[in-house]
Amino acid sequence: MIVETDLLQQRFKEIRKWSERICQPLQTEDFVVQPIDFVSPPKWHLAHTTWFFEEFVLKNSREDYQVFDEQFSFLFNSYYESVGEHWIRSNRGNLSRPSVNQIKAYRQYVNQAMENLFKDEISREVRTVIEIGINHEQQHQELLLTDIKYILGNNPLFPVYDEAFEENPLQNFKSNWISVEEGIYEIGVPAKSQEFSYDNERDRHKVYLQDYSISNKLVTNREYLEFMKDGGYNQVLCWHSDAQAWLEQNQIQKPLYWYKIKDEWHQYTLAGLEKLDLDAPLSHISYYKAFAFAQWKGCRLPTEAEWEVAQEKFEWGSRWEFTESAYLPYPNYRKPEGAIGEYNGKFMVNQKVLRGASVATPKHHSRPTYRNFFHPDMRWQFFGIRLAK
């Protein structure tokens, strides 16, 4: 128990420091920008992940704990309705106050309180919530990077975030199809597993799969450019009805962050504006586009069960990969009691499952059973395409 507590404390420190490392290249002005409603300012991420530990750990574990600021729960609660009211998501960029320095002070205050908590014996229930909080902050670290990219990528100067950030790894291997035989397989996390997982990954259960094949490579920029040159955006038989309405309403004719300059395609990356690497995996693509491209290729997207069963046979981890599966509960899904029950269960509607991880995913935060989920029009994350047939 003592060793486990020590490891948990060490992990807490490392994760908290990494969030601040992500924000280190930013200027003060970058911390407050919110160019669109689904992007949160970096300052808000830093505060919200801190509020999580204050609200769900410290307030419930220490009778003598004094909150840093009574107003912060309203400002930095995201969507936990059972905890209380919260600030409107689309207006997070209006929070010029509290200042960045106040948020840094808030993090230090809660970090110190957590350090004091680790000196005492911690119950299993509290340890569980701390572990959720650590993984929750890692999720926000990925969001931090992609939100920062959207903030800087919509600046006409195309500022460099980090020249050393490599977001376009090459797939230096031959393309082929991996065949999987018809049969009954198991997916998900076993009920008695001691490894961390979210409630939406449990319980392990059987699925029946027909014969199928899945590509060992992700779709590249070169392949998607062929789709565009072939008039793919105008081939109505490739697109869902909702997708066509989305294309027309938003006048979309290319992937996010692609720019044509002097008849050459460029891509904004966290390392700055670069010529489009044709052999790099496609990224920042919506489910709508992923589906349309697969139709154009005479293929389809894999289901999440097909992806999980085959994942040991191909490389993954540079792009979140769209599946054809709706985000739904597994058999015997049990939503946790209290506010933590709002973490995943309330979002199981109108969303698609993505599998894998991305170049923005923190280390030790990916696993084959991880179920990410987004609305079909979203594309600001590092989303990619793996085909099946």
Task: Outline the fold blueprint.
Elements: H1 2-23, H2 42-61, H3 72-76, H4 100-118, H5 124-153, E1 177-180, E2 183-187, E3 205-209, E4 212-215, H6 221-229, H7 241-250, E5 258-261, E6 264-269, E7 272-275, H8 287-296, H9 304-310, E8 320-326, E9 352-356, E10 372-374, E11 383-384
Parallel strand pairs: 8-11
Antiparallel strand pairs: 1-4, 2-3, 5-6, 6-7, 8-9, 9-10
Helix pairs in contact: 1-5, 2-4, 2-5
Descriptive report:
- Helix content is about 35%, strand content about 15%.
- The chain has about 400 residues and is α+β, with helices and mostly antiparallel strands.
- It has two domains: about 1-155, dinb family like domain (Four Helix Bundle (Hemerythrin (Met), subunit A)); about 175-385, paralog of FGE (formylglycine-generating enzyme), CATH 3.90.1580.10.
- The strands form four sheets. A four-stranded mixed beta sheet has the order 10-9-8-11. Strands 5-6-7 form a three-stranded antiparallel beta sheet, with no helix packed on it.
- Helix 1 (about 1-25) runs parallel beside helix 5 (about 125-155), helix 2 (about 40-60) packs parallel to helix 4 and helix 2 (about 40-60) runs antiparallel to helix 5.
- The protein is globular and about 65 Å long.
- The N and C termini lie far apart (about 50 Å).
Give the overall shape, derived from the CA principal axes: globular
Count of separate structural domains: 2
Can you tell me the residue ranges where pLDDT is under 50 for at least 5 consecutive residues?
A: none
Total helical elements: 9
What name is given to the CATH topology of the largest domain? paralog of FGE (formylglycine-generating enzyme)
Assign a percent range to the helix content. 25-40%
CATH class of the largest domain: Alpha Beta
Q: What is the residue-averaged pLDDT?
A: 95
Fraction of residues in β-strands: 5-15%
Kindly, what is the distance between the CA atoms of the first and last residues, rounded to a whole number of angstroms?
Answer: 48 Å
CATH superfamily of the largest domain: paralog of FGE (formylglycine-generating enzyme)
For the largest sheet, list the strands in their spatial order: 10-9-8-11
